[in-house]
Design brief:
This protein is an alpha+beta fold. The protein has five helices and eight strands, in the order ββαβαββαβββαα.
Length: 188
């Protein structure tokens, strides 16, 4: 017996497929649970028509997504945020902030869940944030996170300065703690 699957059924097929199953399996399991419907010639023709329309829709949507990706690659997002002297932010730049900024700058709606940001940005610097516009269409959006009232150094020194503040912070912190402790000890 041929049936059209309305949902994915393990070891049988995927949603929208026309499959051949045993009569008892269809009558006792698939049909009562509304996992499938009987495949009449009219329903099969309607299914093929819908799949053809869906293929054309996806092709046009894919082309639109490629156009949007070209536009987004040329767009640079800039965030002026409060930051400490070591470059760490007071707060963070999240996927929602990025989606709002993309809308403000380029007038392109992007779902925050499509922005591939493992964790929020918490340091000043240059970032290439991947954004999925459509299946198989991903664009890296250049993003600058800049301290308020300041500028980022040129790209080459930024690479050299990256490890320096991290390495110097722990070295300065114990020394400043020791000098303040020794001053307090000398006064006692």
């Amino acid at each position: 017996m041929q049936v059209i699957l309305l949902q994915d059924v393990e070891k049988v097929g995927l949603r929208g497929e026309v499959v051949d199953v045993a009569r008892g399996y269809a009558r006792n399991f698939l049909l009562p649970r509304r996992l499938a419907e009987t495949a009449t010639p009219a329903k099969v023709a309607e299914l093929e028509k819908r799949s053809g329309l869906r293929a054309r829709q996806e092709a046009s949507t894919f082309e639109q997504a490629r156009e949007l990706s070209a536009k987004l690659e040329g767009t640079e997002l800039r965030f002026d945020v409060k930051a400490g002297p070591t470059g760490s932010l007071f707060g963070s730049v999240t996927a929602t902030d990025l989606a709002d900024e993309i809308w403000r700058v380029a007038k392109i709606r992007v779902d925050r869940r499509k922005i591939d940001l493992a964790e929020p940005i918490r340091k000043v610097g240059r970032y290439a944030v991947p954004v999925e516009l459509f299946t198989d269409v991903t664009v890296k959006v250049p993003t600058l996170v800049v301290p308020e009232g300041g500028e980022l150094p040129p790209e080459e020194p930024a690479a050299e300065e990256g490890p320096t503040p991290e390495g110097s912070v722990p070295a300065e912190t114990p020394e400043s703690a020791e000098s303040s402790d020794s001053g307090a000890a000398a006064e006692e």
